[in-house]
Every structure is written in C-alpha cells, then in structure tokens.
C-alpha cells in the first residue's frame, strides 16, 4: 500500500465544525494525500459515529482517522470499521470501552482549568463567548478566535454521555498530539490517555485549538502515521 493511497478522514470536536481543519487539509492535499472532512452534528455519539462511518464508507481504500477533542471519542468507536487502519488523536479524548467524555471529565485534578461551559439549554451545551478565546483558542488569531466563539455549534448532552462500545485503539496503531497549553483538556489528562492507549506521542506548544494554530505540526504527525502504516503493509 502506498501511503498516498490512504484516505485521511478528519473529525472535529464539540462546539466547532469541520472548517477548523482547513489549513491542515490544505497542507495534506498539497503533499498529495486524499482528505475528507466530517461535518458531525454533535448531537449524540451514535449520530456522530454514523456520520463519520458514511465518510469512511465513501473512501475507496484504507483510512487513517484523525480526531480532535470530542472527535477522539468518535474515532475510538468509528475506528472499529475494518477500513480504518490507524488513529491520530489531536488534544483528544481517548475513551476505554464503556467510558464517555462525561466519565473522563468527571473528576478533574485539583487546580485543573475549568472550561467555561454554560448550563445546558434544551439538552445542548455552549461555551461562554466572552471566555471562549482564552480557554479554547488562546493562540489563534483574535479575529478568528472571535468568529469561532460566535459560530459555536451546540454540543449535545447525548454526545457528552455517549459511551464507547469497543475501543478501536486496542487493535489499531495510534498516535497522539498533546497540546501543552490546553485549557480545555488538561495536558496531564492528555498524557494519561496517550500512555494508556500506547500511542506514539508528540507534544506541541499550543492551545486546545492546536489544529488551527499549529496546522503544520498537526499535519506532520498525520503524515508520519500515514507513512508508518504504509511500511507495515
């Protein structure tokens, strides 16, 4: 299998949509990779896995799944698809079987930053717009961070509480990018998850929106994973 025969499927997290992957997408495509971006509704984990699997099924060859934040839970479940050959977690949740994002964030470490999540309305969550940039996108261009805050996608409580039925990282090669300045998922929690899934791990100076602020570092890890998968064939 040629690494460039792989299709790379990018999965966004909560509060945002797939447009944040634009610069990563452009770098990967410039380097010859086929890229697809999932637009998940972030209503329930089951819905988001179904949306992601539609994109996986549309690919002609093997797939490398990439997930940011809550997207890590989505790829952990959707990655059980036989077409998926590897997983890349970008400042992402990596649940064990039976875990959800809700269970992973239930008992934060003392002193850990508290994301400015507002009380749910009609079963959906949003971040406080005034605090969005500082917590989610501190190193993103201020105008872009402001737009991200204003264009938030409501995150469903059913996505937060959706439990993984089988953790694909147990049988698929995994990679993890730790965002060292993350104020949404503490870096220590990211390191714990990366170690637990036995991922090849790199650390990058960046906010939770590291895929927006450091697209070259994120794309480099994705390409490294793609090339390693090629060598295993």
Automatic annotation (TrEMBL):
SUPFAM superfamilies: alpha/beta-Hydrolases (SSF53474)
Any GO MF annotation of the entry: hydrolase activity
Database matches in Gene3D superfamilies: alpha/beta hydrolase
Ranges where the AB hydrolase-1 domain occurs: 8-220
Pfam families noted in UniProt: Abhydrolase_6
UniProt KW keywords: Hydrolase
Highest rank taxon of the organism: Bacteria
PANTHER family listed in its UniProt record: AB HYDROLASE-1 DOMAIN-CONTAINING PROTEIN-RELATED (PTHR37017), ESTERASE_LIPASE_THIOESTERASE DOMAIN-CONTAINING PROTEIN (PTHR37017:SF11)
Name this protein carries in UniProt: Alpha/beta fold hydrolase
Organism the protein comes from: Rugamonas rivuli
